[in-house]
Amino acid sequence: MQKAQEVKKIDHKTLSHSFHLWFWGALTCFSQEHMQTFGYMASMLPIIKKLYPDHDDQVKAIKAYTAFFNTNPMLGTVIVGVTASMEEARANGQDIDGETINDMRAGLMGPIAGIGDSLIDGTLIPILLGISLGMSSGGSPVGAIFYIIAWVLIAYFGQRFLYFRGYQFGDKAVSFLVGKQGAAIRHAIGVIGSMVVGGVLASWVNVTTSLKLVGSNGKVFLNLQDKLDSIFPGILTVAVTLFCWWLMSKKHVSAIWTMLILVVVSLVGVLLGFFNPGLTY
Amino acid sequence: MTISWLQAAILGLFACLCSNSCMAGQAVGNYTIGRPLVGGLVCGLVLGDLKLGIACGVAMQLVYIALVTPGGTVSADVRAISYIGIPLAMVAIASKGMNPLGTSAADLAKSVGTLVGTVGTVLYYAVATLNLVWQSFGWKDVHQGKLDRLYGVNFGWPWLSHALFSFIPTMLLTYYGSTAVTALRDALPMDGIAMKTLFTVGGMLPCVGIAILLRQIVSKPIDFVPFFVGFTLAASLHLNLVSVTVVSLLFAVIFYEIEMAIGSTHGPSDGSQTATASAGADDDEEEDI
Q: What is the pLDDT of residues A5-43, one digit of tens each?
């Protein structure tokens, strides 16, 4: 197929339009069957219209994006940027077809989902929320406002950066995330995440026992909580957390069932006098 | 405290914006408006008790600090937690006359909110299922070449799914639920077994949220070490979270350097371009030992 003489180039406005469609619409028409497929098609539409003036070519081009797509929507922005550059190359007659584009998308969406879920959902957001919770203790709205501003700025400009980086560098943009250096960065960030999560647990959760053994003379001779605190402060909190972790990751109990098991544990504990939240009107 | 129809409708609108498939986009919808901390702010403003709203939001946020939805499977629904659970918890706390900033108020909020949030997953699947209808319109449009209609499929039609499964349920549940919650006050005495259990569970629920996150982070037992160090820094040394984060940066740098160093001495694990360099390094190492 003979291609036009002039090189086709997507202008900045079109790229920006495509980015915004993804930012606002990656998951608006979500279903379990197609997940982000329609969000992806919508965000590729301005680019396809720009590159292919002929309507039939547009229809042909969009077919490549009807394949199933699902990844972490934040980090996945880079994939949309990469496809924009691939689509441009295809429109300029380079040896790229819909299958090449789809192979790239299918190959990246798994790793990007894994990295994105652990980096963003598992590390960045808990850190931001942990800090914000501290600022909002005592009923102050400052923490909530801080979270809104900090997260939206990070999400918007971070995703914008990823999109344009993807467009500029093609699939090279992703190589630092999946290569050796990427693994080291992920490990390092994982350490930050784990320590912060440990800190969140200690700062905000406090499981205590009310068990006291009283001697015949009316004096308390065993205050279990004091004893436990002298061994390791917060030991019961850690124990309950590890118990939940063990149920879910070793026994493959779902989160909902784990919560129900906690209900039973609490009920038994209350009946035995081990737990008593000390309620009064 | 009661909830009027107008207040219930505003909460319903926020529910449409935040829940998957969120009409305000993933970053702004799900990750901002949907977070219980932000939901607490919104509910506090809408219901006219900012302090109580934030307190409930903080309590609920702890349970869902690590709301990861791998592969689109959910164990809780943000619209139900933040815009049904929090308003009902606020009504419950207000009707019990509890100090909004106390531990027992927070524990009650966690129990009420988590219950509602878990049941709310039904709404998530309902929206996702109804979206299949709009998607079938979309496939037809693609085949007929009416490409511009795809915008409507992605940004327009899903509003109908949300009107049915976000707006209406949130409005009805908050409006009628507040009456039910107030009635519950007399049915369950505070010093009874049921209430004691409810509050004890509320205190423990964040452990599940943290455990979900741990399941992601921990692949071998040694991965627990940073977690315990972070816990000890806060529990025993009473460092706040920013300080814990700063200390963790040091460990992150060390781990990064070690991993990069191991990578450069232990053979060509990825790519042939490093093969020659690492072969030389291996020789050096053997001589040293």
A: 578 888 888 888 899 989 888 888 887 778 888 888 889
Which backbone phi and psi does A220 adopt, to 5 degrees? -75, 120
User: Are residues A187 and B72, on separate chains, in Cβ contact within 8 Å?
Assistant: no
Chain A: nearest CA to B24, how far in angstroms?
6
A152:B32 CB<8 A: yes
CA distance A221 to chain B (A): 25
- Cβ–Cβ contact A54 with B under 8 A: no
For the ranges A65-69, A156-160, A273-277, B113-117, the one whose mean pLDDT is highest: A156-160
Which chain A residues are within 8 Å of B101, Cβ to Cβ?
A: 138-139
> Which residue among A147, A155, A248 sits closest to B211, beta carbon to beta carbon?
A248
**What ipTM did this prediction achieve?**
0.78
H/E stretch holding A222: strand A220-223
Three-state DSSP at B240 gives coil
Cα–Cα distances in angstroms (integers) from residue B204 to residues A230, A265, B199, B275, in the given order: 21, 10, 9, 51
For residue range B113-153, list pLDDT tens digits in order. 877 877 777 788 788 888 888 888 888 888 888 888 888 88
In B83-102, the residues whose Cβ lies within 8 Å of chain A are 96-97, 100-101
**Domain boundary assignment for chain A:** 12-199, 207-272
Q: Which residue has the tokens 């943000």?
A: B78
Nearest to A11 by CA among A65, A51, A57: A51
- Please, how many CA atoms are within 13 Å of residue B222, restricted to the half-sphere of its CB? 1
| Closest residue to A197, CB basis, from B27, B154, B210 | B210
Residue with tokens 């949030």: B117
Give the pLDDT confidence of A101-111 residue by residue, as tens digits: 888 888 777 77
Domain residue spans of chain B:
5-217, 221-289
B15 is written with which tokens? 């529910």
Mark which residues 122-151 of A lie under 8 Å from B by CB.
Answer: 122, 125-127, 129-134, 136-141, 143-145, 147-148, 151
Report DSSP letters for A44-72, one per residue: HHHHHHHH--SHHHHHHHHGGGGS-B---
